[in-house]
UniProtKB/TrEMBL annotation:
Signal peptide (residue range): 1-29
The protein, known as: Cutinase
One Pfam family from the record: Cutinase
Family membership: Belongs to the cutinase family.
Organism: Williamsia serinedens
Length: 287
């Protein structure tokens, strides 16, 4: 029953968002300076629960800030001193994705509706870029999500799968993580996402229906970083429910751990994440 209600909410929000594309989609793309050109690829980030908004410059495009601070750190480092990707726009979800805060989402069991709004926003912004690029414009999409935003871009990749436009997905603190799934890295790589627990999912207003579909999508490059004891992606009795492991992704001194039980490397998480994202963007432009 919960799955059906969540599915209905998703459908309703997607329909509502599709009505906005015709009126505001092209204008949104023009604000990013696309100027009617069709980019080879587009990067679409989705922020975490309640993340603040601040506009940023990435290559030749300026975002509206709805990527949030963590993904802003990643994107700024990725685009810095790399002219080869300067023309690949970063197009956020915009305000259409609610990204409800943890207190609000918990109190109102509204995470499912918020995620649905994010999926609709990802699709709407992708369609806006395509429309601005003219007839036949179908750029490859690289989706990046943190926390609740990870759930958003996972679901968006599934929704866009019939179009075959999503090239890669990058996740941080994924609340739907499958233990040791393809592309899962970090000291918490064997952890299970909090929204894989039926009771927690029910209390949060989200559904576990089709949760494995993401891992079955063909031709999709996946990378997901999970910290040890992160209560979102490494949920269990030993999780740090103060949430500290969930708040320290890409910190300057945070060394990269390839997998649970392995020693840290000499590279930082940010260095590895930047190299991975640059590779995903380069791969998308070649497809």
């Amino acid at each position: 029953m919960v799955g059906k209600r969540w599915g209905a909410a998703l459908a309703a929000v997607v329909v509502a968002a599709s009505g906005l594309i015709a009126t505001s989609g092209s204008a949104g793309a023009d604000v990013l300076g696309l100027g009617g050109s069709c980019p080879a690829a587009v990067v679409i980030p989705a922020r975490g629960s309640g993340d603040p908004v601040a506009s940023q410059q990435y290559g030749n495009s300026r975002s509206d800030g709805y990527e949030g601070p963590l993904l802003s750190t990643l994107l700024a480092a990725t685009y810095r001193d790399d002219p080869s990707i300067a023309s690949i726009p970063v197009v956020t979800t915009g305000p259409g994705y609610r990204a409800v805060s943890v207190p609000e989402g918990t109190a109102n069991r509204s995470f499912g509706i918020s995620i649905a709004s994010g999926v609709a926003a990802v699709i709407a912004r992708y369609d806006a870029v395509s429309a601005a690029g003219g007839f036949g414009c179908r750029p490859k999409a690289v989706l990046v999500g943190y926390s609740q935003g990870a759930a958003v871009v996972r679901a968006a990749a599934i929704a866009l799968a019939p179009r075959r436009v999503v090239s890669a997905v990058m996740l941080f603190g994924d609340p739907r993580q499958r233990p040791s799934a393809p592309g899962v890295v970090g000291a918490g790589s064997t952890g299970s996402g909090v929204w894989r627990d039926e009771g927690v999912a029910l209390a949060s207003g989200v559904s576990t229906v089709g949760i494995e579909t993401y891992y079955q999508l063909p031709g999709l490059q996946r990378w997901a970083l999970c910290h040890d004891r992160d209560p979102l992606c490494d949920f269990g009795p030993d999780a740090d429910f103060a949430g500290d492991p969930h708040k320290t992704y890409l910190q300057p001194d945070q060394l990269f751990v390839p997998a649970a039980g392995q020693a840290p490397t000499s590279q930082t998480e940010l260095q590895v994440a930047v190299a991975t994202l640059r590779g995903f963007i380069a791969g998308a432009t070649r497809r």
